[in-house]
Amino acid sequence: MGILPPMADTPPSTSSGEIVRRAGLVATGTLTSRMLGAVRDAVVAAVFAIGATDAFWLAFTIPNALRALLGEGAVSAAFVPVFTEVREREGKEPAKTFYRHLIGTMSIVLLVVSVLGVLLAPWIVKLYAWGFQRDPALFDMTVALARLLFPYIFLMGVSALLMAALYASKRFAAPAFAPALLNVALIAAAFLLVPTVERFGWPGIFALALGALIGGGLQVLFQLPALAKEDLVVTPRFDFDDPYVRKCGRLMVPLLAGLGVYQLNLLLSRLFASFLPTGSVSYLYYGARLAEIPQGMFALAIASAALPSLSDAVAHRDEDEAKRLFRYALRLSLFVAVPACVALTVLAEPTITVFFGRGRYEATEIQETVRSFVWQAGGIWAVASVRTIIPMFHAHNDTRTPVIASALNLVTFVALSFALMGPMQHAGLAAATTAAAVVQLIALLWLLRRRSGRLGLREVGRSLARVATASLVMGVVVASMARLGEWHLGGNHPRNLGVYAATVVVGALAYLGVARALSAPELGDLRAALRRRVRA
Question: Which of 37, 275, 412, 430 is the most buried (most CB within 10 A)?
Fold first, then answer.
């Protein structure tokens, strides 16, 4: 871009173990958030009627999509490389000034987006819940919920900026654990705020919207102490003329476009589901949330932990080191994503039963959720790989190339959705999502090969062969143990809870045992990470 002076060519000294330690911390925080999210979804499914949950999850679609864009990639991917360059080449104070200007500028943008969302809610909801207009009461409820939820965008955008600053400073604990507060707030709202909102004449489901706003505020406050330790609690100032703010904006726009394709797929999926029988939106949502537990816990954790090191390597013009770190991150991601894919596919019915089989969520709802969850779980490995590959482009300040792969994802998803949603209903939408992720993965690998030359993927292939072997053995073990359950008795039955817990533990031990027998190096890396103190 010509903004920054040249750097010294001294290579960075980031070790693979450091990435594992960081990823372990991020994964622990993400696991906490995802598990609380699963508890939240189970509580919502048990407490509220299926029609009300359809309205809430659709109303939450736009704010939650922007949360995913900002909190799970866009801001960090654009900010970290620029902040790292400025800090390394000009010093901490210029980097801090850039950060102050970026927060001020982004806050204005986020505020405008939130206000427009509140004002334009009826038209926005029509775009992705067109089918709900067949039921005016359901449509009006969705619009009212959306208006309450749009201010969440501002809170999440600010939280994402704080996360990005902490990631760039290689502090991972606070941003890793902050998202869990949203789920805590929603769970508390479901139990504590329903009587209050009903006294005001609102449907009980509105308690969740209030809980989301409370959770967003808590996430911002939770990160301030960690920022203070890095001297990054700043007074925001609007300055779009700052060249680094402009550079960050130029990086972020195509990045949002690329990541936005995934969210557009989600919006289209909800739109298509709104034309299907009542409950389809919730079936897809609950299944996707469970599939996202390993995706977010491992793939996102590894990608977030690797990006600062990849950025360091690229900033020091050490392409070989960047490729080595990329291969390492991809191997580590597949080491945990492939067995998760196999286990959740084989245990689809037991998993849905244990998490949702209680309260108002009855046998019919469980079976319908299983139909789509099988396809969603089957795509975990592809989504995890995509999330691990994309930071390699971002580290090079290349946020445009991934948009090409994302566009192929979108085209594939739309075409297959039209073909499959008729005969397969909501399960067809889940199958289309997984197939589109595989197409995106293939495109990304091809584009990265063109950009960076040979990637040394034979090393990844050998690792994948070991992982696949261990996963198949584990799959046979968990399938055999799952037969001991009486899943038609529901998720609260003691036998089912015991069988499921034992199956998960024995399956994990079987996978790790075979991986050890095959001398999988990733196992040693993970074990070593547990013995080291992680800088929080």
Answer: 430
Please say whether the beta carbons of 282 and 50 come within 8 A: yes
How far apart CA 244 and CA 333 sit, in angstroms, is 32
pLDDT grade for 531, boundaries at 50, 70 and 90:
low
Do residue 191 and residue 322 come from a single domain? no
When mean pLDDT is compared across 190-204, 257-271, 459-473, the lowest value belongs to 257-271
For CA atoms 349, 298, 259, 449, the dihedral sign is negative
CA 48 – CA 403 distance, rounded (Å): 38
Other C-beta atoms lying within 10 Å of the C-beta of residue 109? 14
287 and 207 housed in the same domain: no
- Are the beta carbons of 234 and 96 closer than 8 angstroms? yes
Of residues 214, 220, 278, the one with CA closest to residue 57: 278
Q: What is d(CA 147, CA 355) in angstroms, rounded to the nearest whole number? A: 30
- Per DSSP, helices labelled H in 193-300 are 194-199, 206-229, 243-274, 280-294
Contact of 187 with 39, CB cutoff 8 Å:
yes
**Is the pTM for the entire model greater than 0.85?**
no
Angle at 28 between CA 22 and CA 30, to 5 degrees: 100
Any idea which residue has 């372990």 for tokens? 24
Alpha-helix runs per DSSP H in 425-536: 426-452, 458-482, 494-517, 521-531
User: At 330, which amino acid appears?
Assistant: L
Q: Which amino acid is at 480?
A: S
Residue with tokens 């996430």: 219
How many domains does one find in the chain?
2
CB 25 within 8 A of CB 336: no
Q: Average pLDDT, whole number, for the chain?
A: 82
Task: State pLDDT tens for residues 431-472.
Answer: 999 999 999 999 999 988 887 777 777 888 898 999 999 999
Is 325 within a domain? Answer: yes
140: in domain: yes
Task: Choose between 224 and 90: higher pLDDT.
Answer: 224
Cα distances (angstroms) measured from residue 409 to each of 263, 285, 301: 11, 19, 23
Last residue of a domain, one of 237, 253, 269: 253
How far is the first Cα of the chain from the last one, in angstroms, to the nearest whole number?
33
* pLDDT computed for residue 214 by the predictor: 96
* Amino acid (1-letter code) at residue 141: M
Domain range spanning residue 496?
14-32+279-536
198 and 146, same structural domain? Answer: yes
Per-residue pLDDT at 239 = 77
Closest CA to 250 of 77, 115, 92, 71: 77
Residues 18 and 127 in one domain: no
Q: 77 and 172, same structural domain?
A: yes
Q: How far apart are CA 190 and CA 455, in angstroms?
A: 49
CA–CA separation, 14 vs 307, rounded Å?
A: 11
